[in-house]
């Protein structure tokens, strides 16, 4: 049993001894040593250095009257397993270039250095190190950024709301302040724009509602001092008024159309000019339609009757249009000429399809032409035969033909 306890104690002592010297790799008689490759890789040291604030002197190290060494609480760079641990310790203690009692910054030389403890690995974020120039600058930038943003926001908000052209450039301050100003300004500008857009929508609908009720505009005080709001209200109002006017104009136009069809003009009185105009527009449209109708009737009639006959219409104006249409038909002249020519040539009767609508005319003139042809033939015969008797014979023959034609 005693043997086992002894072995355990020995093992413990050996292990403890290993732990105690693991971080420093052992020191020489001066209490210092060269930086190991491992420590160099970690960035903990570079060359020969001392531990426990050493440097050969024992004045800083605590000792008892018996000479037993007490583990010194003062740290050296090699006491840390990583640079993050160095920084954590440095920050916890609140050290700086001028407050460096453990000589972590000044490499044990006790001098004021750069505020960066031990050997910083390249690329390390120096802003993590409290009181380092990088952190001080970083904090200043953050502060400038924040104050810039704070200053830019209300200006942007106002400009966005007032619908002024966006200008997010700060004329003074650091670069960080300017960046912050632009950020704050843009945020404010967007908010202001959103706010005024919503208010303008409301102003438009308010104006529209008033315009539906009355013709006189009355802009609320809440809208009158903002150009955009005022214009929105006016636009809504005018839209409603225009819509009402359009509806009324349409009614007057329809009324005019009805009257125009009846050929009874009864234009409204004591109404706005626009409504009278609308009425007349409708009236004239109806009259134009009637005119077209009677002109066409007259024109068509010209194909079916040889001579104009007054139609049975109880309106002199309409009769006038009818007659105008009748007389405007020049096609019948062509048809008549074609029929006459066919007859004069002594050809047999044949109505060309293009003259179908004017068959009456064509036939009439054909017969006239044929009569002329036959008379011509007769004259020729008479000239050839000579004498009164032959002439009388032909004349009788002609009479016979005409009589027969009339019966037929
Ligand atoms: Ca030290
Ligand atoms: Ca330093």
Strand order of the largest sheet: 1-2
Please tell me the total number of domains: 4
Poorly predicted parts: 5-25, 52-67
- In angstroms, what is the radius of gyration? 60 Å
- What hetero molecules are in the model? calcium ion
Biggest sheet, in brief?
A: 2 strands, antiparallel
How much helix, percentage-wise, in residues? Answer: 55-70%
Count of DSSP-assigned helices: 12
Strand residues, percent: under 5%
Query: What is the string of helix and strand elements?
Result: HEHEHHHHHHHHHH
The residue-averaged pLDDT reads 85
Give the overall form. elongated
Structural class: mainly alpha
Report the count of strand segments. 2
Description:
This protein has 408 residues and is mostly helical. Helix content is 61%, strand content 1%. The chain is built from 12 helices and 2 strands; from the N terminus they run H-E-H-E-H-H-H-H-H-H-H-H-H-H. The protein has a two-stranded antiparallel sheet. The longest helix is centred in the middle third of the chain and has 39 residues. About 9% of the residues have low confidence.
Comma- or semicolon-separated keywords:
1% strand; 2 strands; 4 domains; mainly alpha; 408 residues; binds calcium ion; two-stranded antiparallel sheet
Could you give a quick summary of the protein structure above?
The chain has 408 residues and is mainly α.
Topology of helices and strands:
Elements: H1 2-22, E1 32-33, H2 37-42, E2 49-50, H3 83-93, H4 133-161, H5 175-213, H6 221-224, H7 227-262, H8 273-301, H9 316-327, H10 331-344, H11 359-385, H12 388-407
Antiparallel strand pairs: 1-2
The structure holds calcium ion (2 copies).
């Amino acid at each position: 049993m005693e043997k086992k306890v002894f072995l355990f104690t020995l093992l413990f002592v050996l292990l403890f001894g290993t732990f105690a010297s693991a971080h420093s790799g052992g020191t020489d008689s001066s209490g210092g040593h060269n930086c190991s490759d491992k420590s160099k890789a970690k960035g903990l040291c570079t060359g020969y250095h001392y531990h426990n604030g050493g440097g050969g002197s024992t004045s800083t190290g605590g000792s008892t009257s018996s000479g037993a060494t007490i583990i010194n609480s003062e740290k050296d760079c090699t006491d840390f397993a990583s640079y993050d641990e160095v920084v954590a310790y440095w920050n916890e203690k609140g050290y700086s270039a001028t407050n460096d009692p453990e000589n972590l910054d000044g490499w044990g030389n006790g001098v004021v250095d750069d505020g960066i403890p031990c050997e910083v690995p390249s690329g390390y974020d120096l802003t993590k190190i409290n009181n380092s120039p990088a952190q001080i600058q970083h904090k200043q930038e953050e502060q400038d950024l924040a104050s810039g943003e704070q200053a830019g926001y209300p200006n942007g908000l106002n400009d966005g709301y007032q619908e002024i052209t966006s200008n997010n450039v700060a004329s003074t301050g650091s670069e960080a302040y300017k960046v912050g100003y632009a950020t704050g300004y843009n945020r404010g500008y967007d908010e202001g724009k959103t706010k005024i857009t919503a208010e303008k929508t409301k102003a438009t609908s308010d104006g529209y509602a008033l315009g539906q009720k009355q013709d006189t505009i009355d802009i609320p005080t809440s809208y009158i001092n903002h150009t955009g709001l005022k214009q929105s209200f006016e636009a809504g109002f005018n839209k409603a008024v225009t819509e009402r006017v359009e509806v009324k104009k349409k009614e007057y136009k329809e009324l005019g159309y009805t009257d125009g069809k009846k050929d009874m003009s009864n234009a409204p009185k004591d109404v706005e000019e626009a409504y009278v105009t609308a009425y007349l527009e409708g009236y004239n449209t109806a009259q134009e339609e009637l005119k077209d109708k009677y002109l066409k009737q007259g024109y068509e009639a010209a194909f079916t009757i040889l001579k104009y006959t007054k139609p049975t219409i109880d309106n002199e104006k309409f009769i006038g249009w009818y007659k105008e249409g009748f007389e405007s038909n020049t096609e019948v002249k062509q048809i008549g000429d074609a029929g006459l020519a066919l007859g004069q040539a002594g050809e047999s009767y044949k109505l060309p399809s293009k003259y179908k609508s004017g068959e009456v005319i064509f036939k009439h003139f054909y017969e006239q032409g044929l009569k002329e042809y036959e008379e011509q033939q007769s004259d020729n015969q008479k000239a050839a035969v000579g004498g009164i008797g032959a002439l009388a014979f032909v004349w009788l023959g002609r009479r016979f033909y005409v009589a027969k034609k009339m019966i037929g």
